[in-house]
Amino acid sequence: MTIKWDLINEAFGSYSAYVDQCKDTGYDQDGGWWDDATDWVFGEDFDYGTMDTSITNFYNCVAQKLIDVNVLKFYENMLLIVQFF
């Protein structure tokens, strides 16, 4: 199982640079690729914990970057309003 970073990159539009800055590729992608005879019977032993961690790290990183952008825009707009007084 892999994360389709290209699709996520497209979905972020003008903020797509954040995807490259925040993506975490340190997760199990193939379950060990037939590393044991039981894989033939029971299937791959994919480690979902690594996928959960990777997605959580990505979400937290991107969320913080988007918050930072909005806070910066808020203060820029406040400066414009204050200049009129």
Give an overview in words:
With 85 residues, this protein is mainly α. It has one domain (5-83). The chain contains four helices and no strands. It is elongated, with a radius of gyration of 20 Å.
Q: In angstroms, what is the radius of gyration?
A: 20 Å
Portion in strands: under 5%
Strand tally is 0
What composes the largest sheet? none
Count of domains: 1
Question: pLDDT average, as an integer?
Answer: 81
Q: Could you give the order of the helices and strands? A: HHHH
Put simply, the count of helices is 4
Structural class: mainly alpha
Note the gap between the termini. 57 Å
User: Based on CA inertia axes, which overall geometry fits?
Assistant: elongated
- Runs in which pLDDT lies below 50 for 5 or more consecutive residues are none
Describe this protein with a few key phrases.
85 residues, single chain, mainly alpha, elongated
Walk me through the topology.
Elements: H1 5-11, H2 17-22, H3 38-42, H4 48-83
Provide a quick synopsis of the model.
With 85 residues, the chain is mostly helical. It is 64% helix and 0% strand.
